[in-house]
User: What shape does this take?
Amino acid sequence: MSGRHPPTAHQLDRRSLLLAAGAGALTAVGATACGSAAGQPAGKVAVHGDNVNFGPPIEAAGKQMKSVAGLSLVPEVIPSLESFEQVVKSSLRTSKTPDLLKYWSGYRLKDLARTGGTVDLSDVWRSAEAKGWVDPSLRSAFTYDDKVYALPMNLAYWVFYYNTEVFKENGLKKPETWDDFIKACTTLKRAGITPLHAATDGRWPSFIWFQEVLTRQNPQFYEDLMNGREHYPDKRTERAMQTIGDFADKGWFTALDLTMDNAAAQMIKGKLGMVPCGTWMGALVAGLGGKLGKNIDAFVLPMENPDAKPSMVFECSAFVSTVKGPDRKEAYRVAENWLHPKVAQAFAHALQDGSPNPKVPPANPAIAGVQRTVREKKVRMLNRFWELGPPELVEATVDDLAAFMLNPSSYRSVLRTMQERADEAWKVWREAEKV
Amino acid sequence: MTDMATTAKPVRVRRRIPIRSSHHSARRSGGSSGRLGGPLSGVPWGLPALLFVGVLLVYPFFRSVYGSFFEDNGFTSSFTGLDNYARLAEDPIFGRSVLNTLFWVAGTLLLPVLAGLFIAVATHNMRFGGVWQLIIALPYVISGAATAVVWKFILTTEGAANEVLRGIGLDSWAQGWLLEWPQNTLSMIVASTWQATGLNVVLFAIGLRAIPRETVEAAQLDGATGWRMFRYITLPQLRAMTVVVVGMAIVNSLKAFDMIWVLTQGGPARSSETLALTMYRETFRLFHVGYGSAIALVLSVIVVASSWFYLRRQMPDTRPEGTR
Assistant: This one.
């Protein structure tokens, strides 16, 4: 070695090379073990989530947050539900955990809160409710042990999107009753248009039809079943599944591997009649060239059982603050201002979705129409299948429902299997509650 | 030397003649002389590698074996002995998963290995054969996940495969390739064949080039052509390469994951899961960590045992006569 030239790889002696390799490997191992979150510079707080579509709305909310609380929000997305959940669960008890999370409400939030790793936001909720910044009926979806552990981010209504031009061409109007809905399906099928989207692709969509039909037939039973107070093998679940099987037999459903994105595209093109989905699909529809309130609109699926109280399903993402996050003080200040009308409006309008803050005007005419229906009919809001019941149970029963969607005549054995899983999962859940 | 020259009285220096016997050498190197070349002197050099293998492979393996005796949800655990293994025997999803894994092994041995051999032999003496081989090898450079995305466009109900079938009048053949068992597993094996064949072609092509020209010429002089040439000359000469290709195929098929994950996530209704996917879902999605460890152990035993038996039977025995 002459020493005149900067050292290159082949000029390094063995010891340096070993040291470098060792240090590199340790860094890699360390980085893997520590999870993903590092603190942000002062004045910035990261919000971690699994949904790419939430990135721009978080940035938009961050701009308003800057004017309201002097803090910016930095979206950090792990675009895989599985990886995101793993990072959160494995890092929650370490100082490298993300400060703010976009999580799920209901039992998934309870599951997270009972680890003790999330901040009690009861005071923030109380203050927001006093100012009229949050719909009080949503509180139960965010509580564990009577304390609030998260704030709602969006308020997505589970509706049916449809193409207004296709309906008009076929002499159909927005369904107001169950009979209107059945008539629309029959007419569209006759016109050569597949009336309804149904999917097992991506696993989770398998629950959509079970949830939608059961809540329109027996909303109270749905609520009780999902909270472990009723059993799956029951005349009411059987009836719901027979209804779905009937739709499948009539050829009203799309192929079950049609993704949500493709379904939205086909609906805009007029090849598909209706797509059941949360109103968060508004951003997707707009991105694909659909004009909400013009060629694309949404309706709340009417009740099949006219004696039951009008009901529909909602979905809220949960804004969670962690106990051990590196910027936790700033994160708490963000939480205090998250439901501020300016911040909530920026978020909801960028997402083209409903807002949990009643002071926020609707993001588009489709949302406005749904909110009008909810107000006028005093619709009871039920949480989504995915958020109800122990997460482990839901993870398994979506696969059972996929088996049912593929073979609707198997509903009795599917219901028995679901009950076996429910017995075990609820037992584990309740034992953990005692601990 | 200078000192010696200036000394008045010559000093008698006892000259040592270095004698090195095998006995001597063995004794010295076995002692603590610190000289290089002894049996333990390699240990410091091997230590980093041993450490990495120990920390990243051996410890996790034994930790998984230990963990498989517990009912563990990631937060709390209790000792349950062999319960997890008893559950495996009764679990229909595990049974389906083992069956799918066997499909993958059989399919990978039948399709990419045979296709690779056929293409390599067919293009060996062909004009522009190298170009054809290159084209067939191209998919191998794409990652498994990207390949799966491409095949998703082909295999969905409204995808290219069904469009083509309908286009040529075979409407009744059009179906949901990824929706029902067993065609979802079989379709994914075909997709994997598209990708994996290229590497086998390259490996067999290398093997073909290594066959001595004299052997081939001698066979030709004896009148061997076509099938006889392939059966009695080419195939035996490719034996070493076949061992490598088949060995890799077995291991790769047993750990198939990325393509299945992207195409079906093991669904619908867990119908297309292999052991690797079942292990992942039980451990990381359902948080049955102990049960997942038991599946991991079963998978490891299958991988090691099948590789061991195959290689033992196929590898030429190089040990001396007396030690066999």
Summary: Chain B touches chain A at residues 48, 52, 73-76, 156-158, 176, 178-180, 265, 267-271, 284-287 (CB under 8 Å). Confidence is low (pLDDT under 50) at residues 1-8, 24-33 of chain B.
